[in-house]
Amino acid sequence: MAAKNLHVKKDDMVMIIAGKEKGKSGKVTRIFSDKGRLTVEGLNVVKRHTRPSRANQEGGIVEKEAALNASNVQLLCRACGKPARTGIRVLEDGSKVRYCKKCNEIVDK
After folding, report:
1. Domain residue spans of the chain
2. I need a labelling partner for 13 at 20 to 30 A (CA). Which of 26, 40, 47, 53 fits?
């Protein structure tokens, strides 16, 4: 399966727009581009029951962040501070950058 081109990148601030965590925001920690999913720091936490193993001697119940579908998050614009759709703009030097469609400011660093 080919990798999907997502509208968010690692370390972006996003707001969740659908699901049980709707309205909360956080930083993207991992991207699974082949599945179109991502994890957000401290959000969508689930409990996993694990067996004792070499890595985890105790076993028991472990809380971890589950992946969200990328369509359920929106990028938080640094300039206007609101969740917004993004577009891609080609600069004079030929590089591509993302921009906020609400305030028209460049989102990439």
Report:
1. 1-76, 79-109
2. 47
User: What is the sign of the dihedral through the CA atoms of 92, 104, 15 and 71?
Assistant: negative
21: three-class secondary structure by DSSP:
coil
Question: Within its chain, how far is the Cα of 10 from the centroid?
Answer: 7
Q: What is the pTM of this model?
A: 0.82
- Per-residue pLDDT tens over the stretch 52-78: 999 888 889 999 999 999 999 999 998
| Angstrom distance (rounded) from CA 45 to CA 42 | 7
- Render the burial of 37-52: b for 16+ CB within 10 Å, e for the rest: bbbbeebbeeeeeeee
